[in-house]
Amino acid sequence: MRGFPYQQVRTMTSKARFVPSEGYYPRGFTVTGLHCGVKKDPQKLDLALLHSKEPCSAAAVFTQNKFCAAPVQVSRAVLDGHHGTGVHGVVTNSGCANAVTGTTGLANAKTMARSFEQATDTPAASTL
């Protein structure tokens, strides 16, 4: 993964106990966390990124609410468009989803996914 031009990627040492120090990790996957501004404290990591060089099968369980948040709508569309295959990444922030954000919220969710895809040289519409 090339990384993001505006953020220095770092790890959260207080959570290191949750990361196995030995064993095997899936080949071809990259995972990181960084601060993107969702949380006020710049020391808190508030964005998690998972990237796969190869396309993956994926499944998700979403809310049944008719007024679901924009990221849910975007992720559903990606999964439906690929029939659960061809997914390269997952972007997750630590904020609460506001469900009625209209076209601006939908545009922001798409921009978040597209930014990740551009930064990782990933095919378009392959990020949840």
From TrEMBL:
The UniProt record lists the keyword Amino-acid biosynthesis: yes
GO CC annotations, alphabetized: mitochondrial matrix
Keyword Amino-acid biosynthesis annotated: yes
Biological-process GO terms, alphabetical: L-arginine biosynthetic process; ornithine biosynthetic process
Short name of any one Pfam family annotated for the protein: ArgJ
Keyword line: Amino-acid biosynthesis, Arginine biosynthesis, Multifunctional enzyme
Signal peptide segment: none
Taxonomic superkingdom: Eukaryota
GO MF, one annotated term: L-glutamate N-acetyltransferase activity
PANTHER family from the UniProt entry: ARGININE BIOSYNTHESIS BIFUNCTIONAL PROTEIN ARGJ, ARGININE BIOSYNTHESIS BIFUNCTIONAL PROTEIN ARGJ, MITOCHONDRIAL
This protein's name: Glutamate N-acetyltransferase
Origin species: Tieghemiomyces parasiticus
Gene: ECM42_2
